[in-house]
Design goal:
14 strands; eight-stranded mixed β-sheet; Aspartate Aminotransferase, domain 1
């Protein structure tokens, strides 16, 4: 090419959760049966859609308007319904339907939110980081994602002192990102911590992004908070969707809730630019948006959410018990979502450890793949070759800690027990090799 056409941030577009699928396909083609524990898709892991929700969707298919375009920002009736839900929360910021913008899934919203920022404006995000956020933020700026630490010694809660320090000494930071419940750790943040982060944003003139895609999958004993309840007067964006809680990941239906839009003129102009960019696309998918008021207002939905949260809480306890007494790792039980993160203790991993792989072709391929990779990715590859279990290395989440993330989604009780037991046995064998 006579001109360089590659965006400065292209090298930062990494998504380890799906990139590892390519390696898994190679191993599968060599004869290893694969167990997918990398992707957070409940349907793919066998969860059946509740019959009454399917009935609602069947009814919408018979509604001609569900096949049409909708307003650029989303179906008006749905946005009014969601705004009312936000406004009914105690002590919360009030919004209108015009403060809700629909996208083709949260992934689309993430791309638009970071892509709409001035290149020099950075968003400080957590580490471990969810790859969609960290890659999009890094790509928009052309530099590595800027992060604050989640503390494995404190249940993976944000290190607020680290946030304050990074904000204070880096004036390019314009916003703070947090995820609660968090992905990949499953940590759920207490209100006092959230209010402390909001105070930092208030003090330094920042806005906040809260990814709340797992907000309806919070285990008993943990706070069920919406951003409007703790944000105060700080400009903010909440990210919500139906992919994880209905669950309907293929719907690609997510939305932003804009809080305190008019507190800051610059923030209001930025939000308006997101809507203007959305007009170029026309609109997001209509039918899933139309389903939301029908599903959310059904008297059975609250029980549906409670049942699923309890189910994942039980599975998290199963995983916790599987790793009890394993001195090689730190195992923090999550408080929400459906992931589990294991962190290796410092100095446990090295470049000589391995797992036995019976098939010589698979062993040879794994030995090629582990050349030059991080120690936790080395473990992940050997695990895949030896057992077929596909997990994600923790260093793939913009993180210096070594470990891995797996899901709590397997619906077959016996197979799920096998996965947890095999992971524990593999750690013991690998560390001792």
């Amino acid at each position: 090419m006579r001109r360089d056409i590659v965006h400065e941030g292209a090298k930062n577009l990494r998504y380890e959760i799906r990139e590892i699928v390519t390696v898994a396909h190679q191993v599968r083609d060599l004869g290893q049966e694969i167990t997918w524990e990398n992707i957070g898709d409940p349907v793919q892991k066998g969860e059946a859609i509740t019959p009454w929700i399917r009935d609602i969707l069947h009814g919408l298919i018979d509604t001609p308007i569900s096949f049409a375009y909708c307003d650029t920002a989303g179906v008006r009736e749905t946005r009014e319904f969601l705004a009312q839900h936000v406004n009914e929360r105690p002590s919360g910021v009030q919004i209108t339907a015009d403060d809700i913008i629909f996208f083709n899934g949260i992934g689309d919203a993430v791309a638009r939110v970071y892509g709409g920022l001035k290149r020099e404006a950075r968003v400080l995000g957590p580490s471990p980081a969810y790859s969609t956020h960290s890659s999009a933020e890094a790509a928009h700026s052309g530099y590595n994602h800027v992060t604050y630490q989640l503390d494995p010694g404190n249940g993976w809660l944000p290190d607020v002192d680290d946030i304050r320090k990074r904000v204070r000494y880096n004036d390019s930071i314009a916003g703070i990102l947090l995820l609660s419940p968090d992905n990949p750790t499953g940590a759920v943040y207490p209100r006092e911590l959230l209010e402390e982060i909001a105070q930092i944003a208030r003090e330094f003139g920042l806005f906040i992004i809260a990814d709340e895609i797992y907000a309806h999958i919070v285990y008993e004993g943990y706070p069920k908070l919406h951003m409007s309840q703790w944000i105060g007067d700080v400009p903010a964006l909440t990210m919500r969707g139906i992919s994880k809680e209905v669950p309907w990941p293929g719907a690609r239906c997510g939305w932003l809730e804009v809080l305190n839009r008019n507190v800051d003129e610059n923030f209001a102009t930025y939000v308006n630019s997101l809507v203007a960019a959305k007009r170029l696309e026309v609109c997001s998918t209509t039918l899933p948006q139309m389903a939301i008021p029908r599903i959310y207002s059904d008297p059975r939905y609250a029980g549906h959410l409670e049942r699923r949260a309890s189910m994942f809480a039980r599975r998290a306890q199963e995983a916790y018990e599987a790793f009890e007494g394993c001195d090689a790792v730190i195992s923090n039980k999550p408080g929400g979502a459906f992931y589990y993160t294991i962190m290796f203790q410092d100095g446990v991993l090295n470049s000589h450890q391995s797992l036995p792989i019976d098939d010589p072709r698979i062993r040879a391929r794994i030995e090629q793949l582990v050349e030059g990779v991080t120690p936790d990715k080395r473990f992940v590859y050997y695990l895949m070759g030896a057992t077929g279990i596909v997990i994600v290395p923790l260093t793939g989440f913009q993180c210096d800690h070594e470990g891995f993330r797996f899901t709590l989604l397997e619906t077959d009780d016996a197979k799920r027990a096998w996965v947890f037991r095999t992971l524990r046995e593999a750690i013991d064998q690998y560390v001792g090799s």
